[in-house]
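Example with several molecule types.
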Amino acid sequence: MTETPRRLRVLAAMSGGVDSAVAAARAAEAGHDVTGVHLALSANPQSFRTGARGCCTIEDSRDARRAADVIGIPFYVWDLAERFREDVVEDFVAEYEAGRTPNPCLRCNEKIKFAALLDKALALGFDAVATGHYATVVVNEDGSRELHRASDMAKDQSYVLGVLDERQLAHAMFPLGDTLTTKDEIRAEAERRGLAVAKKPDSHDICFIADGDTQGFLANRLGGKAEGDILDESGTKLGTHDGAFGFTIGQRKGLRIGHPAPDGKPRYVLDISPVNNTVTVGPAEALDVTSLTAIKPRWCGTPPAGSGTYTAQLRAHGGETPVTAELVDGSELRVTFTEPVRGVAPGQAIVLYDGTRVVGSATIATTARAAATAV
Amino acid sequence: MAYLDHAATTPMLPEAVGAMTAQLAVTGNASSLHAAGRWARRTVEEAREMLAESLGARPSEVVFTAGGTEADNLAVKGLYWARRDADPRRTRVLASPVEHHAVLDAVHWLGEHEGATVEYLPVDSYGRVHPAALREAIERDPSDVAMATVMWANNEIGTVMPVRELADVAGEFGVPLHADAVQAFGQLDVDFAASGLAAMTVSGHKIGGPYGIGALLLGREYTPVPVLHGGGQERHVRSGTLDAPAIAAFAVAGRIAAERREWFAREIGGLRDDLVAAVRAAVPEAVLGGDPSPAGRLPANAHFTFPGCEGDSLLLLLDAQGIECSTGSACTAGVAQPSHVVLATGTDPDLARGTLRFSFGHTSTADDVAAVAEAIGPAVERARTAGLV
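Resulting structure tokens for the full complex:
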């Protein structure tokens, strides 16, 4: 089953990159009535940064406009900087400050692209928002929709779309998701379509951190924090740090602990406690997580009843792992891993899959480890 | 397709296209002494005479530039520098706050980089500078005023300024007054000699001429310091090889614009009145910007504020129906900002986001008005639902 071949009024979100440009071109070629929109997400666009790119530069805006002109569709710039700052950037900083590890792309899809943007699009008479994400929408015979992984698993971005609910999905269009295309093929397609962004470098994972230096960004935002202790699992002080926010669970490098561990093995960040401003480190085995709880679940359809077996993805570029999951009281997801997994941090999103179908997502609140329990 | 953005640019007149294309095939630098140069010079000088006649000026008062922006910069910066050089106390620049960016940003630059004290003259709710306001500003210290600049008619809201009265006040104190008449030319009786202005800007592509050509009308007693230095063309005020094809076409367009001015004001002004009535009927809460009296505004301008709407949304919805207009405001990195003109008239910043400018031109028809009359009601309703995201 595929998309109903109906002429839709489509608003194509165009970042200025090659994926969203090709997505807009494909939507137009499919016969839809497409209008391009570039989201200005920074109140102070940095001018003409080259080499790297994010979502917010004058150059990106111009590139998106050029692509729209070549495709032959109307193009507008919408200022969503204030919403983006409130819902994505401040949330990102606050989560780190609380010792969690957020994924701002999920937040942006949930709150900006498929909320603020989609709502305005629908009000203006559009039927759908199209983006350059690699994911597939399947329409069932009863009209209900399912979100699936992209045909090309290596490019799949369904993880960052796992936050979309049924209503959001009903108005989402991912023209890149249902073809087996490598990035080179997408670039070749852009070239063939005369789109100047064909050779443009890929964006960083976090668009609002222009140089990719997340720690530097956080230090700038949360700097001036008191120095704190680095502890081992027994609570013995091993060293000091400049602020607990600068660490991620599973991190190995940059701990700057003067003396080696007794067993001579590397040590990893096991826990971050912003309240005490402490960072706990320990051996790799202590990172093994056997189960977790997650909150704020969002479902691509009917919430699952009872306990079920799924595969789970825990990071944007992570693999799949089998789990058993159960929704408790409609608000808390309890997940048990078949095999222990490492590098799971509160704040991250867990996305559950049934085969290639996205079942839903939730934000990790607590994790239970094989060795000890961390909160 | 209803093109209602003639204030941005208007179709070239066939006569201007003819004059331009005829010259494009002709070789000759108007500064050369040989036959080809003499021929080009004759073309340029005949065009200069023609344009001067259309604007009530002497041929020697016409300084060709590469457009309105350059003429505005030359007038503002050049007159400031010349007046300050003659007397270093003269550092005060008086400007209306509703100027086009070509004037506003030039004035601002003088303040940032050339030690100018910029003073913005008060305007009323129609965006009009009153002669008494200019007098008050100059009288505070007539000896330190370098120059003043007030546009002939506003490009966004269409309000016409009392140019003659303002020039009289400035003249009383020996202060040179410049006016950007880019929108006024072809719509109002623009007579440079009768205006009393020291300098006046006009542009080719707003009157059916080509892009990239304009002129600064410059009283013979004024010698602004050049912005562009070079071969000394145009009274040594504006160097650069003269663009004979564009100049010839500009002059032809200017002559036709001047000849048709009364027809334009009557016929095109009539279409504008119909549009204003139609919009008000469809959207009773729409607020007409600028001076509502026909004598006080450009005949081709209709400017509205639609409460609760974002101008960008209206633009998108109308564009989708083949209606091309403008919000009237400038863009920063493509993001629409409330217009400085609308804000200067005292409009609330939230309200100022919901503006639309419809501007008519020589190709406008009753069909254009009918298209807007049909589309505007539903578009406003929809844009209001979309709200101010």
